[in-house]
Write a structure and sequence with these properties.
The chain is α/β, with parallel strands linked by helices. It has 17 helices and 13 strands. A hairpin with a 4-residue loop joins strand 7 and strand 8. Bound molecules: flavin mononucleotide (FMN). Flavin mononucleotide binds next to strand 10.
Length: 458
Amino acid sequence: MTTSRQDQMTLVAFLQASNVSVYSGSWRYPSSATDYLDLRYYQRIARELEDGMFDLLFFDDRLAMPSIYGGSPAEAVRYGARPIKLDLSTVLGAVAAVTEHIGLGATYSTTYYPPFHVARTFATLDHLSGGRAAWNIVTSVNDAEAQNFGVDRHIGHDKRYDRAEEFVEVVAKLWDSWEDGAIVGDRESGVFADPDLVHEIDHRGEYFTVRGPLTVPRTPQGRPVIIQAGQSGRGRQFAAKWADLIFTSDPSRQIAQDHYRQQKELVQETGRDPESVRLLPMAYTIAGETEAIAREKEAVFLDQLVHPMASLTLLSEVTNHDFAGHSLDDEVTDELIDSVSGIRGLVQGVRKHVGDRKLTLRTLANHRATLLQGPRFVGTGPQIAEQMQEWFESRSCDGFVIAATHFPGAFEEFVRLVVPELRSRGLVRTEYTGGTLRENLSLDRPANQFAAEGHANP
Ligand SMILES: Cc1cc2nc3c(=O)[nH]c(=O)nc-3n(C[C@H](O)[C@H](O)[C@H](O)COP(=O)(O)O)c2cc1C
């Protein structure tokens, strides 16, 4: 059955437990807070987002410092290009304690954590937060992460996704290993829980062998909300099968519109309701009291704050290619494009902005490291709301993942200047209507596979 489309946008905040936002020059911006090693920093940002009634806040993650460039993390450390990434379960525990409604999402890798650990982490968070947990599934990107986990080379792209499929199956089984109502708590008879409703999953697959049951009972959401952001063909298939929320990074509305249609078709092909899956492009907003103020800030972020070496370090990171043999003023030739996997799409996007001028590595790296991966909405509250509305109403997206140029200012400005405007247009919520994140997103609580299959005590 296909349900009708939500008439309001889903709003997600894109956070980093780090010295920088996704914009790697953010630490140099004068009003960026510097207490990112203090839990109150995260609590403050989360409260602000809850005041703005964001549906969800989520943290990205990487399990290594950028260290592809020059085979060393030195430049990432020197220029503050994401050398810090805190453990997310601890951060979200602190955030859960001071919020009541907003969803709490974290990125966990299927390549470098075991499924039991991930299932347990999110089940715990879901209980302790009253049903607000969300897992962003990533397969991780490069060799630097592999080397922190005793492996020389990151495994191949499609194989990573094959492994991730089995990983998520195991996690889902573990989450279902306790049926609802298993805990009896009968003090009189001494029976705590019904063993017929708690299942060993006995999973033996190609990649994992897991006995179960999980040591955490079934959670308020049954299954924490699943996020996925795969952009490749294989990634999109994976997302179609598993994700409740799909994050994208399409640079223009036309590209996003095609992506939206294709991804919804893929969801339908898997037998799921396409309207139950939300496509959310990552977007930067730079809001100001006047357009001139916003444009002035944009110019600072685009041209002044990201050190060119930080940019190059990050370009090496995302492409898994060491650019240390190049100078920043080298031209980006066809030969270079052919030799670096994953760079072609990026180059095509940047070419649109530089026109016929010679494209240098400096320009390419700067675009990648600054603000050009998703749409950028700049202006007053009404101007930004207008652009977001156009994307939403043209079925280019179901909402947005709002990325911050700096913390906490970018979100304060968004909540103060843009949210009231979106509200007055009826495009975002004015109250949290549900108890759990799934309820707030109008997503069903999945049936328990053991109960559904009548699988008592396997
Ligand atoms: C909004 C957004 C957030 C992402 N967060 C992470 C992250 O935290 N960690 C990570 O390794 N990859 C992250 N990614 C990258 C994706 O998981 C994925 O690896 C990438 O889009 C490439 O897709 P592919 O593997 O299907 O080619 C993110 C992507 C987007 C669009």
